[in-house]
């Protein structure tokens, strides 16, 4: 192997834009290729006079258009359930395509390939996540470790692709392989049962797997938020939701950008706020009733309670048993007051967390 500076050369340069997607692929011996995206999909490539465009219908690849000066070609694409292109039909005839289980195929044909991904023109690797990680279909693994491994959702094997199951799983983002072949066909009731066992981060990841899931995800996530936060009264739910919204990439997951989710989030917050207000009233009523009973007068104030306490202690100063009972009453009132203040504090904490989440949801 020639490791001298003269024996080494750069085969290709890649430039990324602010969202960490590949914007330009610049092969050493060819013109640079500019890439353009719609949502999460690569839709247009421009390389000098060459123009390539991909057409989708919902989550399905439909066709590719290529123009090079006056020459034009349209390929109608036949795909499997994972959007891997199996046939390309043009005016010149039909071209069948075959892949190894991990996506390796012979050169040539449309530039959309395994799972609908674009193979790198120099290495033949798939730059998943629009450039986040390169997947090598020959070695059947990623070229570099996952930032979510080994202790996060990426799993123990930081280089593994789809947990060793490329037939039933897909990994468009380069992080976590998910079963997406059937989820968007499930009714909301069945999908909701799946979401019930997921964290908010995983719900967002599943929702981002397809446009259909993304549209349905807002309502399903809001439903789980309502069950966990309002019905189960779990105070840690908002922190978990905030963590999911503030993702590792710093980019707001698409399901949380929808106005549908924001509206549903406000409805959940309104329900939770009303429930917490009711608890505050109940706690205050319990304390007030106890104080009124202690003083023998309605609407007892703090000063009224103190005066009654001094009077009772003076009246029963010779009875140890009565003084112990009075002290128990004081301790009981302190406990009731503490419960009231706790509920007020919890509501204030919720309101601050909600304001923080709303700020994140409105981040451009």
UniProtKB/TrEMBL annotation:
It comes from the Bacteria. Gene3D superfamilies: RHS repeat-associated core. SUPFAM superfamilies: ADP-ribosylation. This is RHS repeat-associated core domain-containing protein.
């Amino acid at each position: 192997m020639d490791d001298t500076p003269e024996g080494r050369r750069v085969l290709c340069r890649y430039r990324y834009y602010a969202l960490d997607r590949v914007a330009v692929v610049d092969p050493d011996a060819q013109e640079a290729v500019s890439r353009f995206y719609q949502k999460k999909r690569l839709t247009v490539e421009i390389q000098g006079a060459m123009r390539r465009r991909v057409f989708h219908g919902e989550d399905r690849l439909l066709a590719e258009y290529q123009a090079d000066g006056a020459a034009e070609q349209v390929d109608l694409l036949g795909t499997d359930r994972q959007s891997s292109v199996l046939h390309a039909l043009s005016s010149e005839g039909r071209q069948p395509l075959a892949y190894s289980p991990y996506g390796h195929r012979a050169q040539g044909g449309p530039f959309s390939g395994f799972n609908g991904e674009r193979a790198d023109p120099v290495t033949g690797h798939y730059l998943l996540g629009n450039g986040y990680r390169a997947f090598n279909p020959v070695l059947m693994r990623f070229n570099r470790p996952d930032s979510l491994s080994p202790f996060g959702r990426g799993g123990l094997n930081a280089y593994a692709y789809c947990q060793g199951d490329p037939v039933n799983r897909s990994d468009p983002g380069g992080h976590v392989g998910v079963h997406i072949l059937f989820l968007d066909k499930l009714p909301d009731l069945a999908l909701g049962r799946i979401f019930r066992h997921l964290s908010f981060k995983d719900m967002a990841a599943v929702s981002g797997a397809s446009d259909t899931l993304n549209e349905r995800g807002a309502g399903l996530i809001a439903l789980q938020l309502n069950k966990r936060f309002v019905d189960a009264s779990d105070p840690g739910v908002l922190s978990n939701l905030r963590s999911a919204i503030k993702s590792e990439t710093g980019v707001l997951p698409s399901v949380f950008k929808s106005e549908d989710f924001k509206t549903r989030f406000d409805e959940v917050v309104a329900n939770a706020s009303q429930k917490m207000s009711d608890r505050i009233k109940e706690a205050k009523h319990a304390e007030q009733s106890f104080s009124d009973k202690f003083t023998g007068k309605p609407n007892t104030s703090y000063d009224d309670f103190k005066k009654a306490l001094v009077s009772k202690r003076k009246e029963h100063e010779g009875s140890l048993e009565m003084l112990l009972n009075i002290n128990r009453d004081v301790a009981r009132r302190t406990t009731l007051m503490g419960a009231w203040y706790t509920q007020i504090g919890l509501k204030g904490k919720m309101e601050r967390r909600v304001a923080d989440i709303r700020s994140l949801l409105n981040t451009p």
